[in-house]
Design a protein that fits this description.
The protein is mainly alpha-helical. It is 70% helix and 3% strand.
Length: 295
């Protein structure tokens, strides 16, 4: 019989599974899904107000992260400009919102030298995300009989891909574990989680695509949903790298089980920009959602 010290470590399939945060994550996710669904459904100022509140909160976390100080006057002004950029979109359009973001970038340049580029980068990036999301939603037409509300369905597709990618990565990573994806950036992420998230996100996205855009080729939907899923995970990793740069674990604690708004929305940002860009390039600025869905 081998001595105890000669025995190798025993495999325990439960060792990698930590589900203590599952309850708060599910509860928070349900609340967020309801809020997002209501805002997306009604569109217009309702959706603009939701986007304004959410990304004002994101930039607040960004400001405190890059300055390592409580929110000051300059940070408050930048948050206010992002809110304005979102709220004026329904009335004045994307160019007015872009002007507000540009002003925010100029204002951010008056910050201290050590944080100036981070502030400019943060406010411009979140401003672009705000404009992308509002451009995707466009004008709500759900209350016009016989009119296809492309913005509603494109927003639903985007949300489903990102939600499924995050969910697949979470459960696959916890259950399967394995080799780390990027240990220097995010020690908790694994290759199995990335693959599981990609598979589920792409599959769910394709199902939604076939339901909402049956006239469009399935293979285009597959490729676009795969790209959305990949960019969702890239956005997640990018935020993890920035947090690692500033030596923080979570951007905040406003969402139980998830951390801050940045932590929850990091996977949405690049995907939203991509969806908007594809739609605009395909069908023009006024038809981003239909340009993404209809081929």
């Amino acid at each position: 019989m081998s001595a105890p010290e000669d025995q190798g470590p025993q495999f325990n399939p439960l060792a990698r599974r930590s589900w203590t945060d599952l309850g708060p994550r599910v509860a928070s996710a349900l609340v967020l899904l309801v809020m997002a669904g209501v805002g997306l459904y009604f569109g217009s100022y309702v959706f603009a107000a939701l986007v304004a509140a959410v990304f004002a909160g994101c930039y607040r976390e960004w400001e405190r992260m890059v300055t390592l100080k409580p929110l000051g006057t300059l940070g408050g002004a930048l948050i206010g400009l992002l809110v304005i950029a979102a709220l004026i979109y329904p009335a004045l359009g994307p160019l007015a919102s872009l002007a507000a973001v540009a002003i925010a970038g100029v204002v951010a340049a008056f910050g201290s030298a050590g944080t100036r580029l981070w502030r400019i980068g943060g406010v411009v990036f979140y401003g672009i995300v705000i404009i992308a999301l509002l451009t995707i939603r466009g004008e709500a037409t759900w209350n016009q009989p016989g009119v296809f509300d492309a913005g509603l369905w494109a927003g639903l597709l985007l949300g489903c891909v990102i939600w499924a990618t995050d969910t697949g990565a979470y459960f696959t990573g916890r259950q399967v574990g394995g080799e780390k994806l990027a240990p220097d950036i995010s020690p908790s992420k694994t290759w199995s989680g990335a693959i599981g998230g990609f598979a589920l996100g792409t599959l769910v996205g394709l199902v939604v695509w076939l339901l909402v855009a049956p006239q469009s080729p399935w293979w285009i939907g597959l490729a676009l949903c795969a790209a959305l899923s990949i960019l969702g995970q890239v956005g997640d990793l990018a935020e993890s790298a920035i947090k690692r740069r500033f030596r923080i674990k979570d951007s905040g604690d406003i969402i139980p089980g998830h951390g801050g708004l940045m932590d929850r929305l990091d996977s949405l940002t690049l995907s939203a920009i991509f969806l908007c860009a594809v739609g605009v390039l395909h069908s023009g600025l006024g038809a981003a959602a239909s340009g993404f869905l209809i081929w």
